[in-house]
Please model this.
Amino acid sequence: MLKKQFKRAFGVLVLGLIPLALSVLTAGTAQAHGYTQNPTSRAYFCKLGTATNCGSIQWEPQSVEGPKGFPNSGPADGKLCSAGVGSFAPLDDPRNGTWPTTKLTSGAGYTFTWTLTAPHATSSFRYYITKNGWNPSAPLTRAQLETTPFLTVNMNGQRPGYTVSHPGTLPAGKSGRHLIFSVWDIADTGNAFYQCADVTF
Model:
């Protein structure tokens, strides 16, 4: 009798653990999304080891995810590069303007590239740039960015591939160090992905 009760209790326990195990596995894969390679983002420089002392972002540059709605909502000023994720706070540290940069030519054509580890139905990709005279030694805020994105790619809910390329034109009249802030708006969730790329014109 005891043996039967033990078997039944064990069976119930195993059946109860299966959904939990599946939810853990699903949550793990759901955290994989995307990052910018061209221009190279802070997150990707951390993955490559070019930038050090990055914390956990070095293992998951694709996971910089936060509430969408930028610029009216979304991550708070000073936390834009980390999307407000506490463990990714090293991305918000301006490092006194010493992050590695990608060299670009103002006003030239350029192809922006994302690597997606889990593509999502997408509203748009948008690219912003810092204003002339911005302070590269301070955490990024909305006031430091041009109000309008210089490139917007509307997707209307389509799901992109694992490598996404967006040909565009870089803003004219830029020189020296700047930052390109990329926003990937997801169509079927309340979130977006954010990437900060330091560049030199």
